[in-house]
Specification:
DNA-binding, 283 residues, 2 domains, Arc Repressor Mutant, subunit A, 10 helices, 11 strands, Jelly Rolls, Tscrpt_reg_AraC-type_HTH, single chain, Helix-turn-helix domain-containing protein, alpha+beta, four-stranded antiparallel sheet, seven-stranded antiparallel sheet, AraC-bd
Amino acid sequence: MYNRKVRYEYITMEESFPLFVESVGYNPYEQDFNRPEGYPYYHWLQTVEGNGQFSFQGQDYILSKGKGILLKPYTPHVYYSLGKKWSTIYITFGGKSAASILEALNMKHSSIYTELEDLQVEIMMQDMLQKMESDSEFSKIDLSIYLYNFLLKLKKYGKMNSQPSLSYLYDKVRKIVEWLEVHYAEDITLDEMAKKLSVSSQYLNKLFQKTFQVSPYTFLIQLRIRKAKEILLQTPEVPVKNVAILVGFNNLSYFISTFKKREGITPKKYRDMYGKENKVTVK
């Protein structure tokens, strides 16, 4: 990182952007701040070296290396150094879609993040700072791309409020997901899925809820519908009733109603609408 304080802030911002960077910087000697009214933008602060104390919502947290905090706009907070040197990197951001993007990522609350080594945030921030040094006001779109990529990585690798990271959860369920990709058409029970993973059915349900926000059974149904869509388009000669059986639905009416509930149209309508796009006219 830099051996000096660096801060870039946009005087004018593209308020119409889904995401925009308001400021980005590195501070080798972080200052003490007391913001009783918070900051007007989303605020990410991460420790590079040393320790600092961060207080918000009535709780005190020690921000050591590998820890960071994401604050919502206007969240009252206080932070200060706990030693001679507390080095930090930070980014503040907003945008018309910032709130909805963070909500979709289940990151809408102010939260502490730990185990950030895999994010390589310092490298990403240094790239952003160098971009701003070279292009200044013309780097806005590129910085929005950096920012979106950062949020995705934070979602994937960051351990939020002591909860397991998404990458950790993916690794835990990967074996059963890969097994379902092969055996989705079989008559599969929750207990059988749990047995394949050597866990209880209750724990398996919790894993799927945390990882995919759906139950294992709903995940299986979604997988079957996805496979049905592939068959409907790739093999138009196969009747819909046969497609249902091929993907694990023994009841045609249930298959049609489930498909329509998820896709908004019946399997036949789906084939009629999108199957034509795959056809090639030979003259």
